[in-house]
Every structure is written in C-alpha cells, then in structure tokens.
Design goal:
Layout lengths: L1 H22 L13 H41 L9 E3 L11 H7 L13 H12 L1 E5 L2 E4 L10 E6 L4 E5 L4 E6 L4 H7 L4 H5 L2 E7 L1 H8 L2 H24 L2 E2 L7 H8 L6 E9 L3
Antiparallel strand pairs: 1-6, 2-3, 4-5, 4-7, 5-6, 7-9, 8-9
Length: 280
Amino acid sequence: MELKWRNNLNQANEKKRKLQNETGVHSSFSKEKAPSTRSINRRYFLRGIGAFAASVLTFRAEGASEAGRRGKTGLASVTVDKITQSKFTLPDAILKGKLSLEEAILSRRSRRKFSSKPITLSQLSQLLWSAQGVTGEEQGIKLRTAPSAGALYPIDIYVVLPTRVYHYQPHIHALERITEDDKRTGLAIAALAQEFIAAASVNLVITAEYERSMIKYERRGVRYSIIEAGNISQNIYLQAEVLGLSTVAVGAFDDGRVQKALKLPKRHRPLLIMPVGYSL
C-alpha cells in the first residue's frame, strides 16, 4: 500500500516538472515553504481587526471630543429653571467682558422689576465667580474676587433658583443642593413681602459665619464680615451690568425667617439678598 502511494506521488511530481518545463512557469514557492491557507487567513484577520480597532478608537476620540464641546456649550446655555442636579461644577468664568469697568460703574443701578425670562447657567456662573470666585493662590491661600480681612472668608452664598436652593463652593466653583423646593415665595415673605424677590430668576443670599473672622479679630470680626459682604454685593452689581442683567441689594428681611425658609445652618446669618434677572 505504501509503495503504491509513493509511486503515485512520484508520478504526480514528474507530471508537474514536465508542465513547468513546457510552460516556463515555476511556482513562486519552489524554494520557500508556502504559507498555509490558515496562516494567510489569520494574517488578514489580524490586519482587519487592527484596522477596525483603529477606526473605533478614532470614532470614540472624535465622538468624545464633540460630546465634550456640546456638553460644555449645552451646560452653559441651560437656563436656571431647568437645573435639578444635586451637585455640579459651573462653567468657567469669562475674563473679558463687553463693558469696561468705568462703563459698568456709570450704568450701575438698583432695579427691582424683573421679567419672567430665566438667566442661563453661564450667567449665574459669572455672577458667582465675580462674588467669590478664586483668582489665584499665594502662600497656600486661595484668594478670591472680593477682599477678606486676614483671608478668613467668613461669607457663604446661597443660590435660590426656581427649582432648588444651592450652596456655592468657591474653591471648586460648584453648586451643591441643600433643598429640593422652590423657596422664592417663602424668601419674599421673609423679606417683608417684597414681591420682586419671588419674580427674580435667581436670588443670591449672602450670609456670614462671624466666628471664622472672630477667631483672629474677636468682636471686630463681625464688622469685617459685614464690610466683606458689601464688597461682594458691589461685584455682583457690576457683573450684572456687564451681563445685561438687573439686581438690587436687599437688607429688609427677618433674619430668622430667611434662615428657616432656606434651611440655612444656624451660624450662617443672612446679611443681604440680591435678586437677579432681566428687567421688564
């Protein structure tokens, strides 16, 4: 049986040599071991997988970049009446405004009549940065837009939106939710029923924890905290002018009722309410 198989193989090889001599065509694999069909298929398979992976990575990178651009732009353009997140970072502040400082000072007014048009998250971010945003760091202390005696920063700002009340966190430029209700009416009642507070798109409530300043300055720390609140309110006034918005510093309110309405910590004493929005 084996002899017959060898004879058949020899006959096949002889026929192959005759055919090559007659046609002048020789196999390209005559001196090298020809790759198997399996190895060829594997090579093309791996090459295809590599191309597919590269295309997926490119698609994901481009998609992520586009999503990032859309996300940032979309977040900035969201109006404050649509915000419901428990905690989120605000859009970056813009450091080049449309008005000069002198023009903003010249046009600054206290305005109390607000339209129902909501402001955007980008505008709110700008207002909060102007009030207490971080501007740099010196000797391990993060400095802010408004001066503070001893850089002790006794001021906290609460943001009253149509949907929630948030606490502003300057060191990370973010908002953290503290209540889930619309507190504007309750805030207006606590402020001697001044209806324009409930009509404003947003209310910035400036509070002070005197103890932070009193640690160093004792009773004088109370005065320094109040001075700081005044500096912050002026920053908000001027930034509102640049953004085409209106505001007014309100000091007529019942402290205890404001604290209760907004569920403020006991030590955070309200000093000013600044409603902000578009003028009628």
